[in-house]
Amino acid sequence: MDLNKRQASAVPQQNSAGQALCFVDVSVERGGIRILDEVRAAVPMGSCTAIIGPNGAGKTTLLLALLGELPYQGHISFPGYGGRRPRIGYVPQRLSFDRGLPLTVCEFLALGFQAGPLWFGVSAALQKKTKETLAQVKAEHLTSRRLGALSGGELQRVLLALALQQQPELLVLDEPASGVDFQGEHVFCELLDALRLSQGFTQLMVSHDLPTVTHHATHVICLNHRVAAEGPPQLVLTPENLSAIFGLHMGLVNLQSMPMAQAGCTAPCCQPVNEKQ
Predict the structure, then answer these.
(1) Which of 1, 13, 53, 255 might form a disulfide with 223, Cβ 3.0–4.6 angstroms?
(2) What is the pTM of this model?
């Protein structure tokens, strides 16, 4: 199957039932360069959807368009939320800040809710709220730690806690485990899986780590300026598709290691892509 046919198979169906959001012909140009070219894809409700592709493919650009941080052509809709824009929590790839700031984790999380200046202290009610949020990501022990003293993995948990304070219906993450070692990445993704299932949000993340995508994603969007393919990982992560988006043979992913394949999941997001669409 050539790339154009794969692109056609990736077009969202007209019936958007069960879809949290749809990208329809989304294009972005910056400095005269077309970064996204008529992207068409859908994110199933309740899914862990991963966007994969090479550096410069437009993955972060697509997230920024979704968040309203970049102008774009085309349409982004939210059929799973009655057409309204859902509450969105965002975890960036990295946070740039002065690590010498005398700012604690509790104070950092309180910034969006604190009415008065931080030097007056954080109210007891807000301290309780931040501790409860940190407990959700198993990081309550970091409450009094200085933000600049956190490790990469600890900082990612704090950023996740910050996103969860919005009580998101859609959680968007850009390389959430960037700078974290393999074991830390696995633990972080297991935590995300548990939170998604318990809180019922839809998760959309950019990832460069194919093993992580293989084991945790329920839906995959292969992006290289355009969508080359999308669907459940056991059907999408093939040598043909990976070669099309990365430009080289990536090798066959071990389908038997995929939890969704082992479980024989029948959810809409795990059904084969209809090649005739």
Answers:
(1) 53
(2) 0.80
